[in-house]
Amino acid sequence: MPTVVGVPKELKEQEGRVAMEPDGSTELVHHGHGVIVQSSAGEGAGFDDEEYASCGARIADTAEEVFEAADLIVKVKEPIPEEYGRFREGQELFTYLHLAADKGLTEFLMERKIEAVAYETVELPDGSLPLLAPMSEVAGRMAVQAAAHYLESPQGGAGLLLGGVPGTPAARVTIIGGGVVGTEAAKIALGMRAVVKVLDVDPVRLRYLDDIFGDRVDLVVPNRARLGAAVREADVVIGAVLVAGAKAPKLVTRGMVKSMRDGSVIVDVAVDQGGCVETSRPTTHSNPTFVEEGVVHYCVANIPGAVARTSTLALTSATLPYLVKIADLGVEGAAQADPALLKGLATLQGSLVSEPVAEAHDLRYESVEKLIC
């Protein structure tokens, strides 16, 4: 039976990404499905309504039309309260969810019996996260750009050029977490001639980073004392911690932040999962920073949204094969057919099937295998 896939316009502030580019419509139509796209949904990423229409999509004037017509809603960011009333019971949802940081959304999805798959927890057998990786790459690279900008005096920073110039010291960048975000941040920071330190608890990952960077990066297995020293000495701290599907641990304490020099910069990329810095709180692109303990905090929860076209192209290239599979088989059928999507299930049949989210909010957890396998 054909599925109607709905693409609403993103409502988060200054979120220009769109969940599907026009050629995704071509692919879905080829598989016998329908596509309905809200007018101007792709505008922020440089895709106009005519492009979608020429690829077989129907253009809807309002989000309500999209939600009413669609069996499967595909988004970029998690639904916000304004969108809750548009969902109908049993509808399917494929998007970033980050539920460990949002109990209200978790409870809504359960109550409305939304069959939800979270991009960020779709996981391959080798442990990699194919739908999180593209945005992690973007966020890691942009984190250093943001840090360099907010180190400037007019932005409230310490007045440092990240790479210095001959005869002056370069800025010191401490990156907490050596995954995709941390690796990409290290690449850009090195390219800008900063002094870079990466901390990660996984010695195997550090050996991999050593193969990539050699002696250009200081690689450290942290304990509390080492972490405190690395933060205290840094001009820039980038929080790149990820525990897949779970709330980020608060590794950097307020006391550590207070030990930093005034005008230093913290970029907490983990803020969409609650943040790994005690003083972090989510910000937006229109009001991206605040100062706490004399340190400039950049905690935008959708960093890749600032480069909407690049991010959309990167994200939709990764998500489209999974989207087609869900449209073909439904959420339950696709999860049974593909172990990666099984890992991505968040809510099903009114139950919470993500154990890390259940632990974060003290909610009842149901094994997905018990429900569908």
Description:
This protein has 14 helices and 15 strands. By secondary structure, it is an alpha/beta fold. It has two domains: 4-114 and 307-372, NAD(P)-binding Rossmann-like Domain (Rossmann fold, 3-Layer(aba) Sandwich); 133-301, Rossmann fold (3-Layer(aba) Sandwich), CATH 3.40.50.720. Helix 7 (180-191) links the parallel strand 7 (172-176) and strand 8. The radius of gyration is 21 Å and the shape is globular. The model has no long low-confidence stretch (mean pLDDT 95).
Outline of the structure:
The protein has 373 residues and is an alpha/beta fold.
State the helical fraction.
25-40%
**How does the major sheet shape up?**
8 strands, mixed
- The helix/strand order is EHEHEHEHEHEHEHEHEHEHEEEHHEEHH
Percent in strands: 15-25%
Mean pLDDT: 95
Give the distance, in angstroms, between the N- and C-terminal Cα atoms: 22 Å
**Count of individual beta strands:** 15
In CATH, what is the class of the largest domain? Alpha Beta
Shape: globular
And the CATH topology of the largest domain?
Rossmann fold
CA radius of gyration is 21 Å
Question: Order of strands across the widest beta sheet?
Answer: 3-2-1-4-5-6-14-15
- What structural category arises from helix and sheet content? alpha/beta
CATH superfamily of the largest domain: NAD(P)-binding Rossmann-like Domain
Treating each run of at least 4 consecutive H or I residues as one helix, how many helices?
14
